[in-house]
Protein 1
Amino acid sequence: MTTHSLLLLPGDGIGYEVVAELRRVIEWMDSNSSAQFSVTEDDIGGAAYDRYGTPLADETLAKAKTCDAVVMGSVGGPKWDDVERHLRPEAGLLNLRKELDLFANLRPATCRPALASASSLREELVSGLDILILRELTAGVYFGEPRGIETLDDGRRRALDTQVYFESEIERLMHVAFELAARRSSKVHSVEKANVMETGVFWREIATRVGSQYPAIELEHMYADNCAMQLVRAPKQFDVIATDNLFGDILSDCAAMLTGSLGMLPSASLGPLTDGKRAALYEPVHGSAPDIAGQGIANPLATILSFAMCLRFSFAMNAEADMLESAIDNVLANDVRTVDIATTGIEPASTSEMGSAIIAELDRLKS
Ligand code: NAD
């Protein structure tokens, strides 16, 4: 039987609480699926700062580099507000992403059937929604040089950021986009601002060239402003949206809200393909939620759904990923809801009650 190595990094705040429920799911999969998991745990973020004096210790990074996949909870919290910037919890996560060269950020916006009425859009617009936003994560305007705030010789002050993309950076992202679309509904929207930005013109040229290598996938180009509008007008027209770091940041948040709660949103970040394997980090989109940490009421589903992505993308365990997602849908349909997704008249479930309901449903689906 294949054994997959997993590094679990609970992090801070509700990270610990949601990862505790994920651990139960991994244990279930270990006993009931076609593969086994060898799990190592370590600290990241504020917890790592408290233990190692740094938010990402070298030994932790070394483990992240050698395991098959990393699953994280969330980092941050007011306890570390006064810590030097480079030692703050978030710096640990940024460093991990950088060290693993996680250039492809996948954020699905999937409307789980039982939550269709929780969207800010009309139910018929979002029911059955299944979009994947693919954001370039390691280049673009958030990293480009020169940047800064400066005073010119004539005394005028100005600020600048620089949008830079190398051909190879767009190329590798677009390959991931087409490969993902081939496993979904075979459609890629490449999103930029070719009407006003040189990087947009360049992006479009390279997306078109990479697209010609995938004749079975439909490629459509769209301006980012139009994409934002279309996401709230008719989101079901999209399958995979591939875009740069800045537009991806904005569009993925916009798409996220189509689906309801922050506590339901998973993500994956993938690195380059090396010897047939990609470095991968799976984590919920939400943060450490200091306002509810320690109360046992956080929604663990974003983290569990992130693990479903891990099963699918890192381990090709599609049947198990489907089963886990079905278990979640069935539990929600049975009105087991944590407080963030509970509707009137439903007594909210605790974090561990939600975990227990998922395990019980997995048992039922397996039998
Ligand atoms: P947050 O995502 O932690 O919380 C925003 C709101 O959503 C809060 O009201 C919170 O209670 C609620 N919420 C979030 N996740 C939930 C869940 N699973 N179940 C139920 N409710 C949930 O964002 P924030 O408050 O802006 O940030 C808090 C801390 O988290 C900060 O230190 C921030 O830097 C950090 N953060 C970390 C990550 C990460 O680790 N990837 C991401 C975002 C924020």
Protein 2
Amino acid sequence: MIPIDLSNKKALVTGSSSGLGAQIAKYLAKAGAQVAIHYHKEEKEAQDIANDIMKEQTKVDIFQADISDITQVEKLFKEINEKMGGLDILVNNAGIDGKRVYCVDSDPAEWENVIKINLFGPYYCAKEALKIMIPQKSGVIIQITSVHEFIPWSGYSAYCCSKSALSMLTKTLAQEVADDNIRVISVAPGAIATPINEKVWKNPLGLTDLENKIPMKRVGKSEEVANLVVFLTSDLASYITGTTIPIDGGMLIYPDFRHGG
Ligand code: BGC
């Protein structure tokens, strides 16, 4: 049997009060990691996820912070270090897609807000996590990007730009810390059924339109993304760094070309 064992690993998953983040936190815990749940506003949901995890695992900590604010992020990591005594895994998952609006009509403040949460947030968290990981000479940082680090998406220019830039942050950080035994990897999900896109997949027309963009003809499950994150954070992935692993049912392989060019 090939083992995946994250026991003795301490992991923080940002935005883990719902959706992908919650599932990732649960699966890291299932693999043995001591998990920190982070939320911004959904305190009750964060507590529910922690209770769920505690059915199998004894220790789960919950932390609140607005990751787009460096002062709050510094405080968050100080608290994590004090409470958990280190950090081995950071999953930069928290993010928003923002309101769908063409660039020409967009509100610069809303555009900036998406970039602050999706790009500055992971940058601040990575910066603070590395202050812990570099001295201990080990760690893994996973950045949850999106297929939209590659695929343009009309009406979501800030989201696409944030994810594309986050992918470059992954590569640059990976280069900076590879010889400190720290790996930095992007995971780029396609359409995964979570609250962020439920308006689309819960509507039959929206679902069909979405499935037509996916060669595997189905939206993904958050468990499938969580499995990938567990693998990438484990020693089984010890030679993977500075790259993006898409998990998208084939969305990136130009499905319209199935029927000829
Ligand atoms: C978005 C989803 C969307 C998917 C595929 C993700 O990054 O969050 O809303 O369904 O990309 O377009």
